[in-house]
């Protein structure tokens, strides 16, 4: 099954309005028109400006988070309708910073993933073990439990993306080796084949995230089950982000 690679930049809580627009324009100007999908997730408050900056380009607009309710008294939250209004096509769920820093519980992650899918958008569901979990030999078990947050009623493989992000590799400069990444990606695909079915699992894209840079992207993206990347630090400069995206061609 040929899977088009998907490289997404997660800007996290970085940039200001002028920098966000300039970065978005830089990415839009240099993004490959085919062969690899490219997306960017600016902070909520810059989504509108970034949406305008990438209009007419192949770059997909993503959001870093969302709330699962449709509307109402949920102070500080942002709905899927609001995101769709601005042209958002995909939304992250279960990012390790939300799980471990913000302490978002698995039940809430699961509700968000379901709501994103039900709204017709793509879910980029992040999974990954902490260092102590890797050392304890529970990497596969942790990833499996986090994949199980997705209901099996999510059957459109085009709109389900998994991002495997070992927590010990995020923002640390310490990347999983090509072999370590491939081993977990293969496990995830195999597990998804059992939980959904093989056709679904063969079509789902599994991104790698965690200190992916231009110099290690080719090796990681060359692995059989690595279908793209979720990029943090290196996505804050258009040239390094585009170099990673082009490594996926
Ligand atoms: O969402 C992106 C990941 O957390 C990776 O971040 P990083 O590339 O800065 O390690």
From TrEMBL:
Keywords, alphabetical: Cytoplasm, Gluconeogenesis, Glycolysis, Isomerase
EC main group: isomerase
Major site of localization recorded for this protein: cytoplasm
Catalysis: reaction(s): D-glyceraldehyde 3-phosphate = dihydroxyacetone phosphate
Binding residues annotated for substrate, in chain numbering: 10-12, 171, 211, 232-233
EC number, as in UniProt: 5.3.1.1
GO molecular function annotations of the record: triose-phosphate isomerase activity
Subcellular location: Cytoplasm
CDD domains documented for this protein: TIM
Key word Isomerase present: yes
Pathway: Carbohydrate biosynthesis; gluconeogenesis; Carbohydrate degradation; glycolysis; D-glyceraldehyde 3-phosphate from glycerone phosphate: step 1/1
Catalytic machinery residues: 95, 165
Gene3D superfamilies noted in UniProt: Aldolase class I
GO cellular component: cytosol
One GO biological process term: glyceraldehyde-3-phosphate biosynthetic process
Top-level taxonomic group: Bacteria
Pfam families, per the entry: TIM
Family: Belongs to the triosephosphate isomerase family.
Assembly behavior: Homodimer.
Main function: Involved in the gluconeogenesis. Catalyzes stereospecifically the conversion of dihydroxyacetone phosphate (DHAP) to D-glyceraldehyde-3-phosphate (G3P).
Protein name, per record: Triosephosphate isomerase
Organism in which the protein naturally occurs: Humisphaera borealis
Encoding gene, per UniProt annotation: tpiA
